[in-house]
Amino acid sequence: xxxxxxxxxxxxxxxxxxxxxxxxxxxxxxxxxxxxxxxxxxxxxxxxxxxxxxxxxxxxxxxxxxxxxxxxxxxxxxxxxxxxxxxxxxxxxxxxxxxxxxxxxxxxxxxxxxxxxxxxxxxxxxxxxxxxxxxxxxxxxxxxxxxxxxxxxxxxxxxxxxxxxxxxxxxxxxxxxxxxxxxxxxxxxxxxxxxxxxxxxxxxxxxxxxxxxxxxxxxxxxxxxxxxxxxxxxxxxxxxxxxxxxxxxxxxxxxxxxxxxxxxxxxxxxxxxxxxxxxxxxxxxxxxxxxxxxxxxxxxxxxxxxxxxxxxxxxxxxxxxxxxxxxxxxxxxxxxxxxxxxxxxxxxxxxxxxxxxxxxxxxxxxxxxxxxxxxxxxxxxxxxxxxxxxxxxxxxxxxxxxxx
Length: 404
Hints:
Elements: H1 2-41, E1 55-57, H2 69-78, E2 82-90, E3 92-93, E4 105-106, E5 109-110, E6 118-120, H3 122-131, E7 135-140, H4 144-155, H5 161-172, E8 177-185, E9 189-194, H6 198-208, E10 217-221, E11 224-230, E12 237-243, E13 247-250, H7 252-255, H8 258-263, H9 276-299, H10 302-311, E14 314-320, E15 325-331, E16 335-341, H11 347-359, E17 362-364, E18 367-373, E19 381-388, E20 393-399
Parallel strand pairs: 1-12, 2-7, 2-8
Antiparallel strand pairs: 3-6, 4-5, 8-11, 9-10, 10-13, 11-12, 14-15, 15-18, 16-19, 17-18, 19-20
Helix pairs in contact: 1-6
């Protein structure tokens, strides 16, 4: 009987210890969230790349652990799209002066041997933009040689004939902006040592015999992805982004090898060394995910929306008054041309829309306003282009079927 009671008492003590462990882990996650909220409320650091006439956006990188990445992706995708059709060109090519042993490269080339030293495939970038529902239309440039050439020419503010021809062709193909992936500045992976989660790791290890799943060691990649939005009139920079991964917490299962996992049964996981191969793989994959998520976040920010509106020769919006969709235009100058581009719409309907839009002009406080209903039969995606008397050009691509 005494033996049974002692066994019951030991089981109860173990259960209380498990309860305490769960509380500690929960508090750790809550404190991490509180820390993230506090950091997000602080002013951003001005560490972005500056271009000619371009504005800067601070890098976005969040610490791992309890960050709800999937929820954030869903929240970003739920935000309204930017009313632009975008051609994506350039590529995340490794900068020639990057670290010889970096996050995405070794002395012999890329870690995964990717084609043409493109650290992050352009298809992955386009996929992130599509899943994030960033623009109304997104198309990738499929010519690798041209992507490399255009990236160099636009970065050097070139006025070469082939660059002007490329931009003109993009306008003729119905695009509003150019998204230029300029380069990936590779950098080394820096270990910041064991973090503040080690007590949770120790408690899990001492009570359950395992602690390998607690992210108790912090690393940081110094790699950065440079991306810019460009106008199609002359390739001028609208906005420049420098995207960095930020600190990354790894558990032993992400940073160790098989021998380390076996040793963690008898040795606390935070005392076990790292596997360079495992660390590089985990940091590389996490860095890519974070930089692409940061790209979506910054492109859908209110600051970028305001910047696009301020730089445009005219502001175009699509509203629904209950009776149908209406295109509204605001401009500091009077419009001279308006064009509706919609596949499958007859020319007569498009011309009547242009005439009604130009004829609706009104002026108030030095701002010209125009409005016209979208013709019946207009497909779900269409573009409106306008030009001012002084030669300014603006365009937007709308999805009429989307709620606004």
